[in-house]
Write a structure and sequence with these properties.
single chain, alpha/beta, Rossmann fold, six-stranded parallel β-sheet, two-stranded antiparallel sheet, 7 helices, binds flavin mononucleotide
């Protein structure tokens, strides 16, 4: 009986070790800005954009990224630019339009993460003018992502993924692209339960949900 117990115990330990070893190392890198944005937050009556934009303390995509980190156990990295984006919504529209027209690669601030430490890179961003924010492309093009799994997720106010996945793929040749998800920014900002529900279903499907400890 004792022998059987010892055998089962060893088996459990081995299984546990194997599961721990096979858990992918996940980085969740994202672009997101607080400040004035479309269809969310509390409007400042003095703002020129008050009719359609309010002020938020934390960006919609950041909220999604933080929930993904909870659900997967991944590490977070906020991609920021040397020249910060304006809080003011009208100025932000102009800045994003210029970067898009120039197909710019804005210089990123701070030290970039070492991707050797990760198997899976989740890349998060808002839709800007129906496109991928240019700093996302700067980030992806700073690496050789061959052999990595790349998982896009984004927030938006009606455009869905809006063709951004092909832009992401073009900036990350050699990466294996997994199915992404698009979540409305207003849902991320105002409905935590729904956001978690959508993310859980998606992460389950692409097998990135954190496994409960045995
Ligand atoms: C400059 C700019 C352009 C935008 N263009 C679009 C767009 O084309 N389609 C869309 O659905 N939402 C658009 N939005 C809304 C954002 O995608 C949405 O609010 C997103 O959740 C913002 O994410 P963040 O708070 O993480 O920055 C735009 C927002 C900004 C600031």
């Amino acid at each position: 009986m004792k022998k059987l117990f010892a055998f089962v115990l060893v088996l459990c330990l081995l299984c546990g070790a194997a599961m721990a070893e096979s858990a992918p190392r996940i980085l969740i890198a994202y672009v997101s800005r607080a400040g004035e944005n479309y269809n969310v937050g509390v409007a400042d009556p003095d703002s020129a954009s008050a009719a359609y934009a309010g002020y938020i303390e934390k960006g919609n995509t950041q909220i999604v990224a933080e929930t993904i980190a909870e659900l997967t156990g991944g590490d977070l990295y906020h991609i920021t630019t040397v020249e910060p984006y304006p809080d003011d919504y009208a100025s932000m529209l102009t800045r994003a339009r210029e970067e898009l027209d120039d197909n710019a690669r804005p210089e990123l601030a701070g030290e970039l993460p070492n991707l050797d430490d990760y198997d899976v890179i989740m890349i998060g961003y808002p839709i800007w003018h129906a496109a991928t924010p240019r700093p996302v492309l700067t980030f992806l093009e700073s690496y050789d992502l061959s052999g990595k799994k790349l998982v896009p997720f984004n927030t938006h106010e009606g455009s869905g993924q809006s063709g951004t996945v092909s832009e992401i793929a073009a900036s990350a040749p050699g990466a294996e692209l997994l199915d992404g998800i698009a979540i409305q920014g207003k849902v991320a900002q105002e409905n935590d339960d729904r956001t978690r529900e959508l993310l859980t279903e998606w992460l389950d499907k692409i097998k990135l949900i954190r496994q409960a400890k045995p």
